[in-house]
Specification:
The complex is a heterodimer of chains A (about 650) and B (about 280). Chain A has about 650 residues and is α+β, with helices and mostly antiparallel strands. Chain A is built from 17 helices and 33 strands. The chains are: A alpha+beta (about 650), B alpha+beta (about 280). Chains A and B meet through strand 17 of A and strand 4 and strand 5 of B.
């Protein structure tokens, strides 16, 4: 097995930007499907992570009048989420009407059973088959390909078969966008230009801030010489060059000798910033070879000039005006939006939570950035709403999820890093985003007539995240996992220290646990059938009975044998057990990529303080609609046949839900 | 130079006056049409029309020769050699009118750049004011007093860059209009105009320069500063402008030349010009 570090894994898993530019042609006019006017319309607001408990509290207090009004008109239910309740899994349930056994998305991360190497679950990258090398240049003779891994047809593809128009805005887990002539733009899972899910750059003269591998970004040490900082902005891998070097753009920052003001010069862009000021979008171009370049957009934030110089550059988003990777259908849709609104966030989850976690941005700065995202979304929502007159409109908002992840610590006094002073300042952040969504819902309700079914939904709720659990450490200490060298425990990712010949089980991803099965895994030890079944039941029982010595609670509320909870054609790729964590617990930060730390349990001292990767019972989503709901406990996969039924379309093979109306 | 620039500039203001509220395409089509007329006139009266006609006929004849005697390598090669010879002769006949046209064309292009080269600011937009100063002036010891009319906000203190001998400010456009920016340096006062979204077709002068033939030639939009002024130039970094055609952004020069050539060929028969 090659030695690959965490950073390389993440980068190579998604990088292909330079290569795919060859394949992205431009169209003069946006193609639209020949569409029939529908009598019925469906308007869905996808509010990621909106929690029913918080929603009900604030509805009761009269803070969310539109949600209350919608409930009064129709109904409200807690919406059963997916197992596990991770966004790509949950939204895939909604998209296909199946559970992971059918659509094949079981976690953010899957594994290659042969090599045990983790893989991103959402998309597969295929580089150009044929290349020609001329000196140092490698010229592809065909375009590369990004392929959506999700199986099953998306509901808007089925609507397209029946000539029903749909606009699907930023649907998570839909990168690259499923082939369709409907108007769609990809959401969560869309990488930045470098192929990362998120990768910021931070330039500082303060040596103490410089850390090597922080995950989610890069910190560069810079110097001020003659009131000028010279630095370089890393770009995508240059696949046109033999050694595949990283491309980059040099830039200069001129600083006034006394006044707090700086000018940044990068390519054609020249702009002046004061400390604490954002630049707005700047378009940059990475040159690969004389005829090929890759466009990106990024924002600059001048944190400080003196005594130490600090400059943050946001992850470089794919330029929607000249996308290097497929981000919309038809491909002109992103260009059309760019023309109307200017450059916009194209990265799947645009808020830079890693910058906040690494103290590169503080709470206020993160919120400023997320306000840009939210305002952009609200502006585009009004545009889409204004032209919605037939078929279906799905509109997604990520700020609800991201703000709860990062600001839960301010409403949770039990959080290990709760700070009352900060709580006073930012304690209303989550409430405010719920109120903002209430105003958005009000706009949607204004557009709703008697023939429009309006649904406000979330994929899951939220829960505090106080303690983190290391499943591989638990497996190791209980004799299910073996190490090559005990003294190396906790030092390496990707199971580099695992002795597979003595290992019976391993955990990978946020909730998945796999049996090291003979004939399936590269070095399997457990026979399929009775032996494996007995081991699964034993591990489940032991996991559920394990107690946290510090709190006396069970970190695992429920562990699920996947053969009991999944159905469908993709079962052979499923983990064997899904770990459903209890409220307050989640998998640790290092475990998903196969690290085996020394302690089974640790305090979560990160700013990422709210989470949902628990047991599905702990974090149901919301379902508020202007219609009466006829089933007691609706699930995400029930909404898909519901949408089809509204348009008099029968549910397709493999869909496991039923209409809620 | 300024007298010439202001007279020549006035002519263009008169030409474009009717088109100010219309899409820039109308003004561009009109000026391309006038340019085509001008080029045809120059060509007619400065070129050897009879000679051009003859070489074109010769080229046609040799092309026909190639088609007729395609089986004979000797004849074909000789014909191709003759085509090349007459092409060179044709270029020779074109040099004189081109030389006559080149100076007025450069002057026209410089003026057109004022009309089509830059976008005016829109309210809410930020822009950099860049002041280039003399080598003798101390950047740190000199006080730059800057004031603006109410539609324009000076957002930052001066940013002094020794490497390029310049001082920068960030301006914020608040209201539409032609705003004035005044700057006093060592007792010298300068006024610079700043355009904020007036009409579709605007004359925008990004740079005000110190008196100097070449600089004035290329920046004719505003009266120059005195030759001994401590400031070399004042520049507003307006965004570049492009002509939009079916969603494609095209540089105005390409549009201008393409339209002028199209009009030229379309009208050559009317004016009986051999080109």
């Amino acid at each position: 097995m090659n030695r690959v570090n965490r950073r390389d894994f993440i980068k190579f898993a998604l990088s292909s930007g330079a290569l795919l530019t060859l394949g992205s042609g431009s169209e003069l006019v946006t193609k639209t499907l020949g569409k029939s006017d529908t009598h019925k319309k469906v308007l869905i607001l996808g509010l990621d992570g909106m929690d029913p408990h918080l929603l009900q509290i604030w509805m009761k207090q009269g803070k969310l009048p539109s949600f209350q009004k919608l409930w009064n008109q129709g109904d409200f239910r807690r919406l059963r989420t997916s197992t596990p309740p991770q966004s790509p899994v949950a939204w895939s349930n909604f998209i296909t009407g199946m559970n992971p056994g059918g659509h094949g998305i079981f976690d953010f991360i899957h594994r290659d059973p042969e090599s045990y190497m983790p893989k991103f679950s959402g998309a597969e990258i295929k580089e150009a088959d044929k290349t020609i090398r001329i000196g140092n240049l490698v010229l592809p003779l065909s375009g590369g390909e990004v392929k959506l891994s999700r199986k099953g047809r998306a509901f808007w593809q089925i609507l397209e078969d029946h000539d029903i128009p749909a606009t699907v805005f930023k649907m998570p887990g839909n990168y690259p966008p499923a082939p369709t002539k409907q108007r769609t733009i990809s959401g969560m899972g869309t990488p930045d230009l470098l192929g990362f899910l998120s990768h910021f750059n931070y330039y500082t003269t303060e040596f103490a801030e410089v850390k090597e591998d922080i995950g989610g970004g890069e910190i560069h040490e810079v110097y001020i010489a003659e009131n000028t900082v010279e630095a370089s902005l890393p770009g995508p891998v240059n696949t046109f060059k033999k050694d595949r070097p990283d491309s980059s753009i040099d830039f200069k920052v001129h600083i006034d000798p006394f006044n707090p003001v700086a000018k940044i010069v990068i390519q054609d862009n020249e702009f002046i910033l004061k400390p604490g000021e954002w630049s707005g979008w700047k378009r940059i171009r990475f040159k690969m070879i004389p005829t090929q370049s890759v466009n990106g957009i990024c924002m600059f934030y001048l944190k400080q000039i003196r005594p130490e110089f600090k400059l943050y550059i946001s992850p470089i988003n794919i330029d929607p005006a000249a996308p290097a990777l497929p981000i919309s259908t038809p491909s002109n849709y992103s260009k059309e939006l760019e023309k109307r609104f200017g450059p916009f966030f194209t990265k799947g989850l645009p808020a830079d939570t890693k910058a906040l976690d690494n103290n590169v941005l503080d709470d206020g700065e993160f919120l400023e950035q997320d306000d840009f995202i939210l305002n952009e979304r609200l502006e585009m929502f009004e545009h889409e709403l204004s032209r919605f007159d037939s078929g279906l409109l799905f509109y997604y908002v990520s700020s609800t999820d991201q703000r709860q992840h990062m600001f839960w610590r301010h409403i949770d006094k039990k959080n290990p890093i709760y700070d009352p002073n900060q709580a006073k300042k930012y304690g209303n952040t989550i409430e405010n985003i719920y109120r903002e969504m209430d105003r958005m819902l009000a706009k949607a309700m204004e557009k709703t007539d008697k023939d429009t079914v309006l649904i406000a939904m979330s994929d899951h709720g939220f829960s505090p995240f106080h303690r983190s659990f290391n499943p591989n450490t638990w497996l190791y200490e209980n004799g299910y996992h073996a190490l090559i060298n005990k003294w190396r425990q906790g030092r390496e990712d990707l199971f580099m220290n695992t002795d597979w010949s003595k290992t019976k089980a391993y955990a990978l991803g946020l909730n998945g646990l796999y049996i090291n099965q003979k004939g399936r895994e590269g070095e399997g030890t457990v026979n399929p059938g009775v032996e494996k079944e007995a081991l699964v039941r034993e591990i489940i029982q032991n996991l559920e009975s394990f107690r946290d010595p510090q709190t006396g609670e069970n970190p695992v509320l429920k562990a699920y044998a996947t053969k009991d909870v999944y159905q469908g054609s993709q079962m052979d790729k499923a983990p064997d057990i899904i770990i459903g964590y209890n409220q307050g617990y989640r998998v640790s930060w290092s475990a998903p990529l196969g690290r085996i730390p020394k302690n089974i349990l640790e305090d979560n001292r990160e700013k990422w303080s709210g989470d949902h990767c628990m047991a599905p019972e702990v974090v149901p989503g919301i379902l508020v609609t202007n219609q009466k709901i006829n089933i007691d406990s609706p699930a995400l996969f029930d909404l898909t046949p519901t949408i089809l039924q509204i348009f008099n379309i029968k549910k397709t093979e493999g869909m496991i839900g039923k209409s809620i109306f | 130079m300024w007298v010439f620039n202001s007279i020549f500039g006035k002519i263009f203001e008169i030409v474009f006056f009717p088109f100010k509220s219309m899409t820039p395409w109308i003004g561009m089509i009109f000026i391309s049409f006038l340019t085509a007329l001008l080029m045809l006139c120059v060509f007619r009266f400065t070129s050897h029309q009879q000679g051009i006609k003859q070489v074109k006929n010769k080229i046609k004849a040799h092309l026909l020769e190639i088609r007729l005697f395609k089986d004979s390598l000797n004849v074909s090669l000789r014909a191709q050699g003759n085509i090349l010879r007459y092409n060179l002769k044709y270029i020779g006949y074109s040099i004189k009118p081109l030389m006559v046209m080149i100076i007025p064309l450069i002057l026209i292009l410089i003026q057109l750049n004022l009309w089509f080269g830059h976008q005016s600011l829109t309210p809410g937009q930020e822009v950099i004011l860049k002041v280039e100063v003399d080598e003798d002036l101390s950047l740190l010891d000199t006080e730059f007093l800057i004031e603006s009319s109410s539609g324009l906000v000076i957002e930052t203190p001066p940013l002094r860059i020794e490497e390029t001998r310049e001082v920068n400010w960030k301006l914020f456009a608040k209201e539409t209009g032609i705003h004035e920016l005044s700057m006093t340096v060592n007792g010298h006062r300068i006024v610079k105009k700043v355009a904020v979204a007036q009409k579709s077709l605007n004359k925008i002068s990004p740079v005000k320069v110190r008196r100097n033939f070449i600089d004035e030639l290329f920046h004719p939009g505003e009266a120059p500063l005195p030759a001994n002024h401590p400031i070399k130039s004042l520049e507003i970094k307006y965004p570049s402008n492009y002509m939009s055609l079916f969603g494609w952004r095209i540089h105005w020069l390409i549009v201008y030349f393409a339209l002028s050539i199209i009009f030229g060929f379309a009208l050559k028969g009317v004016f009986k010009v051999e080109i």
